[in-house]
Write a structure and sequence with these properties.
Length: 392
């Protein structure tokens, strides 16, 4: 293979470019990114960067473009993939031939249909974060729509900035679908203890305000006044440019167990855009977290260079963290339908809860107990019986 093109210069894309060189690939590497910014890390956008404690420099992904000999093309978008001719069609019509392809186009926030009044924000990119940060300086009344991780972190940062914030969540608890009712209740308590108002179990009927947003109308008819609204209602994988190209696209790029794309040779994918079957948990996954983007990029490159018939399965134990207020939430594995508190004190928001499914330990979540939490990793890897013995 003489050249590899990586589409998407986020975490997975930059890690893939680095991994190619690390694994001894000497051909041309083209890294194509739609954003004009040099690659940066997203997790601080809702935390330290939004709070103003870290600057742009601190969130850079230090990609050694010259050392790695990369053909880095920023502000360029892949519009179409032509698999039979093995070329990409870029914005403006330029054609870019490739031998190997890494798809790392991530995901973008879901939004409400129609034109949004001023004062309505999403948070995915550096530009989004710069705009939201500027809007928070006037100490506006903020409504966060969606009590997921991004919404929860934005609310926590608002409180750190002494900005009044309300979370509107359609379900009756934050993070209910992701973490289940027991942990959802604990997350709700965390917000309330920090003075965040929660409007749970209410969908959004409309955004109020013509030119500028003035409030959020809930499905029960009440209006929550707002000067700034942050919409955090999940993401959609960036796969439109792949429609009709012959790859299997289904809520992400569908991969085999080695991270090779179904429907083509010499094409792999990684990060938020990638869906694959994780044999360790016997389920399909598309993971929207930092560690997976990094690890999967390494694995996908390995598969690309070896060829899928010689490649290994990608079967990691997923991991993520979320910083909210002074609490570090971390999770290993996946949620299950049973849960027990295994260590620590829920009341003090310092504990580990363990998830089980069909009598096996499948995941663990920790609130500010990082070392204890990691002790459950091995039990998850071993599919230990649930509930497990408390970790030492
Ligand atoms: P992305 O980072 O989305 O990068 C994809 C890139 O591809 C983008 O730059 C996009 O512009 C570009 N692109 C898209 N389409 C095209 C195209 N057609 N042509 C060229 N380029 C294209 N995870 C955690 O585990 N813990 C956290 O605390 C945490 N906090 C987060 C906070 C925020 C505000 C956000 C947004 C995410 C957070 N995450 C966190 C998730 C984590 O950042 C993502 O999982 C990770 O960034 C995914 O990397 P990626 O490279 O797959 O996708």
């Amino acid at each position: 293979m003489q050249n590899v093109t990586v589409v998407g210069a986020g975490l997975a894309g930059t890690r893939a470019a680095e991994a190619l060189r690390r694994e001894g690939f000497t051909g041309t590497i083209t890294l194509l990114g739609e954003e004009v910014h040099t690659p940066y890390d997203r997790p601080p956008l809702s935390k330290q960067f939004l709070a103003g404690t870290w600057d742009r420099n601190r969130i850079s992904l230090r990609l050694e473009v010259e050392e790695l000999g990369l053909d880095l093309r920023l502000g360029r978008r892949a519009e179409r993939l032509d698999l039979p001719d093995r070329k990409l069609v870029l914005d403006g019509g330029e054609e870019l031939p490739f031998e190997g392809l890494v798809i790392a186009t991530g995901a973008r926030p879901r939004t409400f249909p129609g034109t949004q009044p001023q004062g309505v924000f999403v948070l995915r990119t550096l530009d989004d974060a710069v705009a939201l940060k500027a809007a928070l300086e006037a100490k506006p009344r903020v409504v966060v729509i969606g009590g997921g991780f991004i919404g929860s972190e934005v609310a926590a940062t608002c409180k750190a900035l002494d900005v009044d914030v309300t979370i509107v969540e359609a379900l009756h608890l934050p993070l209910l679908r992701v973490l289940g009712p027991e942990l959802g209740e604990i997350c709700a308590d965390l917000h309330r203890r920090h003075g965040v108002e929660l409007r749970l179990g209410h969908g959004v009927a409309d955004l109020v305000g013509e030119k500028r947003v003035e409030g959020v109308e809930l499905t029960d008819g009440t209006v929550v006044p707002a000067d700034v609204v942050v919409v955090g209602i999940g993401v959609t994988p960036n796969t439109e440019w792949l429609e009709g190209c012959g790859l299997d696209i289904n809520n992400g790029v569908v991969l085999d167990r080695t991270c090779a794309a179904e429907g083509a040779d010499g094409v792999v994918a990684a990060g938020d855009v990638a869906r694959w079957y994780n044999t360790l948990f016997a389920r399909e996954m598309r993971v929207e977290h930092w560690t997976n983007a990094s690890e999967q990029a390494d694995h996908a490159v390995d598969t690309l260079l070896k060829g899928r018939e010689h490649a290994e399965e990608f079967a990691p134990i997923p991991y993520f963290w979320s910083d909210q207020y002074d609490t570090k939430i971390q999770m290993v594995g996946v949620p299950g339908d049973q849960v027990v508190i295994a260590d620590g004190s829920v009341d003090q928001h310092k504990f580990v809860a363990v998830y089980g499914h069909e009598g096996r330990t499948v995941g663990a979540i920790g609130f500010s107990l990082p070392r204890k939490l990691m002790q459950y990793r091995q039990l998850i890897a071993e599919r230990a019986p649930f509930p497990p013995e408390p970790a030492g």
